[in-house]
Amino acid sequence: MPESIPENSVGLVKPQTAHFAQPLALDCGRTLAAYDLIYETYGKLNADGSNALLICHALSGDHHAAGYHSMLDRKPGWWENYIGPGKPIDTNQFFVVSLNNLGGCKGSTGPTSLDPKTGKAYGPDFPIITVRDWVESQVLLGERLGIKQWAAVIGGSLGGMQSLQWSIQYPDKLRHCVVIAAASKLSAQNIAFNEVARQAMLRDPEFHEGRYYEHNTVPKRGLMLARMLGHITYLSDDAMRAKFGRELREGKLNFGFDAAEFQVESYLRYQGESFVDRFDANTYLLMTKALDYFDPASDYEDDLAKALAPAKAQFLVCSFTSDWRFAPARSREIVHALQQNRLAVSYAEIEAHQGHDAFLIKIPHYIAAFSAYMQRIAKEINA
Amino acid sequence: MSPNHLRTDLELLSNWIQPSSHVLDLGCGDGTLLEHLRQQRQVTGYGLEIDPENVTRCIAAGVNVIQRDLDEGLSDFKDNAFDYVMMTQTLQAIRCPDQLLPEMLRIGREGIVTFPNFGHWLARLQLLRGRMPVSRALPYQWYDTPNIHHCTLRDFEALCQKLNIQILECMVVDPEHKSSWGMRTFPNLLGEIAVYRIQRCLET
């Protein structure tokens, strides 16, 4: 817990919920009759509404991007390193909106919410949500908050896919698009990792075809395994070596299978176990599907440049050299497609050993490039 | 460097750029040239740059910069994507200039190349004295230079001929921006910095 709130933090924040009673037609053909979106805001919206930024979260992220909910919180929001007074996303200059996406498990309508038709949790009956659906719902949230055009839509990883989709789907509703450690589609390897994660959950005896809430249980082992697998892919070989090496917890081998002997085992088990307490398996399944399905070029003969033809925003694209989950080559494909459309784009390929997780971590070149870009946006609106 | 104090070769070659062109600047540094061309010539385009600090400077200046190592080639740019592909004071640091030059002219209608002339008399004199040249245009010691492919004007022109590249224009200047009768008459001896405008030879 923080003894005192650091000066460069947005401090204590309170999430808010917006209820939408208008049905939302989804990509999968189904409709959500009504839904809630939980969100947080940091900073103040200026008089002409020109300083609003939308933050899109990644696979296991949520609306709590910065600050603390209470003085008892062990950790601040997931992007505390980048959002706050004087930080790259400077809350003295910008009005920042961060929401939990549809299908989430942190307060927006998702599998854990009650289905008004049955009075029970949606569970596996919650429709599959796509990145396009998320953008649709985010547009409605923006309208609710009185934002006609975002100064920028910003996201890392799956969040970067959302910002990219924004630029295609609503080109007039954003001036800048920041795409960090993302890809325009998953590779077969990416999908393969997601499939193993899904199978771990689906085959857990406690899964009960997704109706585990009704059995007062959770597919703990499956969700834990899925998260452990995910963590391996978020770190680089180098980062794991640097962090854990072959270090043994008790300094000796125990010649058994039960205890976590190597530090890396202990780390993965801890990450997996703590994830079970804060995340829902059905949501995790949905998020991995949203990742797998995202491929804006698929409607344009697999030509990403054609898919991006409607875009009008200016772009910042960042990747990290050791990220093998969403490698720099994937970001270069995006840059290449933007450049073919003669769109304004800057691309920083940041030297970092931390792997995919680098987008959350303070890295000097990343901070410098990201800040420089955000300052440019601030200058445009005289913030 | 402010646009008012442009590097000598930059000011000269910007006169060769048609207004509203689409350009690519290979090794764009802090974006000075692109910013100048945007203001003076209303050009659009991108700079490629490898140095992280320069990339940040470009972003801050509002110059479209793509972080990239030129030695990886330009294969992901399409044919004739640009009106001009420029490369100022970078040729001598490229691993394969003989591969990059044709690539420049594949993706651009015209190329503009500047480099320090290794045939300048001061360089020749220092070599005669048995030492590697160090000068205003070649400020590095042999052991810390990023420059791995020095050439003279004649070397460059011979390579162009071999690669079927047509030289449209050539200028030589000193680092102060100036040209002179002497330089124009004996460019390979008196010119410190070479500025070339090139294009693909039409197939015959």
Automatic annotation (TrEMBL), chain B:
Q: Which domain of life is it from?
A: Bacteria
Q: Which InterPro entries match?
A: Methionine_synth_MetW, SAM-dependent_MTases_sf
NCBIfam families in the record, alphabetically? metW
Name assigned to this protein = Methionine biosynthesis protein MetW
Organism of provenance: Candidatus Venteria ishoeyi
